[in-house]
Amino acid sequence: MIEIRNLTVSVDNRTILNDVELHVSRGETVALFGPNGSGKTSLLYAIIGIPKYTVESGTILFNGQDITKLSIDERARLGIGMAFQRPPAVRGVKLNHILELCLAQRGVTDSADINNCIHELQLSDLRNRDVNLGFSGGEVKRSELVQLLAQNPDFMMFDEPDSGVDLVSIQAVGRIINQLLEKEIMARRRTKAALIISHAGHILDHVNADRAYVMLHGTMYCAGNPGDILDDIREKGYEGCITCKK
Amino acid sequence: MQKVTMKTKAKKAWRKPSLYGPDIDLSVYTDQAEEQMPVKDLRELPGQISEESREAGITLESGCRSGSFFQIDHSVVLASSYESGLEVMNISDALQEYDWLSAFLWKAVSVDSDKYTAQSELNRHNGYFLRALPGHKVVFPLQACLFMKQEGLAQNVHNIIIAEEGSEMHIITGCATALSVQEGLHIGISEFYIKKNARITFTMIHNWSEKIVVRPRSAAIVYDNGVFLSNYICMKPVKSLQMYPTAYCAGADSTVRFNSIVSAEKGSDIDIGSRVFLKAAGSRAEVIARAVSTGGTVKARGHLIGEVAGIKAHLECRGLLLSDEGIIHAIPELEGRADNIDMSHEAAVGRINEEEIQYLMARGLRDDEAKAAVVRGFLDVEIKGLPEQLQKEIKNALKIKEKGNYLL
Ligand SMILES: Nc1ncnc2c1ncn2[C@@H]1O[C@H](COP(=O)(O)OP(=O)(O)OP(=O)(O)O)[C@@H](O)[C@H]1O
Ligand SMILES: [Mg+2]
Fold this sequence. Notes:
The structure holds 2 protein chains of 2 kinds.
Chain A: E1 2-11, E2 14-24, E3 29-33, H1 40-48, E4 54-62, E5 65-66, H2 72-78, E6 80-83, H3 95-105, H4 112-120, H5 137-151, E7 155-159, H6 169-180, E8 193-197, E9 211-216, E10 219-224, H7 226-245
Parallel strand pairs in A: 3-8, 3-9, 6-7, 7-8
Antiparallel strand pairs in A: 1-2, 1-4, 4-5, 9-10
Chain B: H1 2-13, H2 47-54, E1 67-72, E2 75-81, E3 86-90, H3 91-97, H4 115-122, E4 128-132, E5 142-148, E6 153-163, E7 168-177, E8 184-194, E9 199-207, E10 212-222, E11 227-234, E12 240-243, E13 246-249, E14 255-265, E15 269-278, E16 284-294, E17 297-306, E18 312-321, E19 327-336, E20 342-351, H5 354-361, H6 367-379, H7 388-397, E21 401-402, E22 405-406
Parallel strand pairs in B: 1-5, 4-6, 5-7, 6-8, 7-9, 8-10, 9-11, 10-12, 10-13, 11-14, 12-15, 13-15, 14-16, 15-17, 16-18, 17-19, 18-20
Antiparallel strand pairs in B: 1-2, 3-4, 21-22
Helix pairs in contact in B: 1-4, 5-6
């Protein structure tokens, strides 16, 4: 579904992603690990097309189409969606209004899925507030999730959906992500795919990942089984990845 | 006797420039206007006039209004109240009818404030008198329109609004010009008296045009436990608009709230502020301003004066620059004259935040849709205490023009 080739990205003339390769197939869920500042969020921004993240070389293919030069909204309308790690507050724009706008794009006015999700994620008070304004860490994550549900993209990127989320909420978050990713049906029938950034991998206790990547200093170091990789990181730290690659 | 002193005072001030805004040469405007025929129903008004006034919140249907006042140039063409307990009159007629009324003329606003107040006294062209009788609560808004039709005219109106004890009224005032009018000057004096336990909400929507100069001069006196909520909206071009309405919380536990929402296009110069004197214990004031510039200049002022202990007041001004050429200058002032007062302010001016736009674009909104949502959100000041219908009408008035297209 998504294929990234030799992607080099800079911000203000500073290279922050270097020759990155990544692919996620339809039906797949892929985890992305890496220490703080390694470039995980930047990669997601480059995929969604935030202009500040300048693509110096390489290509991003979505369902075979080169989207490297498309605008953010064009990519979103093709079916790419993202749950932000730290979304900005938009004063005066209610969460509910964003949900309505997302649904309207799909020609939907009222959605049972959304109502269930609001209920499950306990967002009923939040939906009438200015989006992200004064939201707690966990509230931000849940609000991002319901927005993705309203948008219903084919390729979903989750930037640390588990950080700051309490132990009870994370189960609900997991259920919603599974629903979004059609985990209830057989893998080869699924139409969705996901890339999930996580530090401790808590979300992976609830959402099954097929593969994982490790990013260090803006470069992909490793790819493999998520459980094995997490164990290695826990045991040897990210240093292990460096020596391993050598 | 009083009239003589007022005229004398006015004569002394007739060259006195305002402290704020560009000085206007009053001599370039004509005083002479053709007489307009009265109408029985606003639907009799020519299509063009009703069209322009509609954009300033005036409706032709009397069903959802408790009264209507319509003045074209110098002529009051309609002044009628649709319920007992509410008076809607030409101020000139009201002054004839009520001897006591002259005491309310220039009581809240000083006649010698500047040349505009002076001009208004020396050359008054009617205006409205609105009054809710004691205990009378008006459910539907009453509307007043001041319309300018003649080229090069100076329109000087004087309005007096009185809410008697325990009464309540919602007023929507629209000001507009005919499309054909190029140059013009509007001077509007408005004096509000909100008596004990009374309540006025006053919503003013301005729909001027590129070369009109506007100098409203208004003040409100709020007595014990009275409430004055004033909303001002100007989303259309204007050459020069300067106003600094003042409210006096004169009675214990009185409340004043000013909301102003303005947008300045290229060529528009807006200098607008709100000032509240908190003179009695327990009084509350809130001044909220939102200014957008698509190329014009906005000075957004605010001044709170806390004179006694136990008052609480807040000033908030936010400016959003949508163009490289615009200027927004926020000037908040807090003046404490007693201890144990609670006054605060908050001001922020900046460009539209790209991150917010990108965030909404990531949800599939086009660039212009995302911008519109952010601007609309910015302008969406929660105006408390207004009837729902009026809220809707205000939302309709909050359209902003950018690059010739309506952004919202
Ligand atoms: N807009 C920006 N301006 C300047 N530097 C940036 C910008 N965005 C990212 N960077 C830098 O690029 C590097 C990668 O940042 P990024 O946010 O992608 O890391 P991350 O892997 O998501 O980290 P974390 O786990 O802390 O979220 C960091 O050094 C960061 O400071
Ligand atoms: Mg990050």
